[in-house]
Design brief:
With about 260 residues, the protein is mainly alpha-helical. The protein is built from 16 helices and no strands.
């Protein structure tokens, strides 16, 4: 990398607009060369990751095309800012190119997916406002963004998504094993998440996975937990039943006959 380009990356890491302007005076084409020659991170990636809003604002004013550039992990500057929770930077990037909400990184994750798994609710709000359909994009494993929230214990993110898109198909989406988010929450004994999901009108409490098991069946096939009985009763109250033989369960049978 040439000396002037090295200085540009140093300016990005410090968020120095003065250094950026000085470098542009020395070489008007420096950003064009970075745009063409960078195969890893651009200065915009660096500034977005580190939260330098003023630098980000200035560089996208001069070279807005940098917003679409991907690093070696196929992450855009919006991916990095979203994961880190830099709301102002997310807002600035979206104002130029909201379609980057739909871009996937090497793992198939969008900026919204990354924000959800980190619990960046304020960032998620901005992303959903810019591109509501970003929430509907599934992961490569067949999961949707709600599965991601449960797996990463992000209840507030889950609540935001369900309040934004409450459609039956969305809240009852199944992964490649046929599990809904309720299956996952029950299997992991996430009591607060379970209780929230059971208040959602569209939730299907007796949805079957590919093994023919309902969420209540899932309860006894996972590790025992001190709150198992509480989960069982919560499911029963909303009409949840089990398809499997549960007579050996220490808290008693809770199959169809006890509903």
């Amino acid at each position: 990398m040439e000396m002037v380009e090295t200085k540009l990356f140093e300016a990005a890491s410090k968020g120095s607009i003065d250094s950026l302007k000085k470098l542009l005076k020395e070489d008007l084409l420096i950003l064009d060369r970075v745009f063409i020659n960078c195969f890893s991170e651009t200065p915009l990636h660096v500034a977005a990751l580190l939260g330098h809003i003023d630098f980000v604002t200035e560089i996208i004013r001069i070279k807005p095309q940098l917003i679409t550039e991907l690093n070696s992990l196929q992450s855009s500057p919006l991916h990095l800012a979203s994961a880190k929770g830099h709301v102002e930077i997310v807002r600035a990037l979206l104002s130029v190119n909201p379609r980057m909400c739909l871009a996937r990184d090497r793992n198939g994750l969008t900026p919204l997916h990354l924000a959800a798994q980190k619990g960046r609710v304020e960032v998620m709000t901005e992303l959903l406002h810019a591109e509501p359909d970003a929430a509907r994009l599934t992961l490569y494993g067949g999961e949707n963004i709600l599965h991601l929230c449960v797996k990463h214990y992000q209840l507030e993110a889950l609540k935001l998504l369900v309040s934004t898109i409450s459609e039956t198909e969305f809240v009852n989406a199944k992964d490649n094993d046929g599990n809904t988010v309720l299956h996952l929450a029950v299997a992991d004994k996430q009591v607060e998440t379970i209780n929230f999901l059971l208040t959602v009108a569209a939730i299907e409490v007796n949805s079957l996975n590919l093994n023919g098991k309902t969420p209540r069946d899932t309860l006894i096939q996972t590790r025992r937990h001190v709150r198992d009985l509480e989960i069982q009763e919560s499911l029963k109250r909303v009409g949840g039943f089990g398809n499997q033989n549960t007579s050996c369960w220490p808290y008693g049978s809770f199959g169809r006959e006890d509903g």
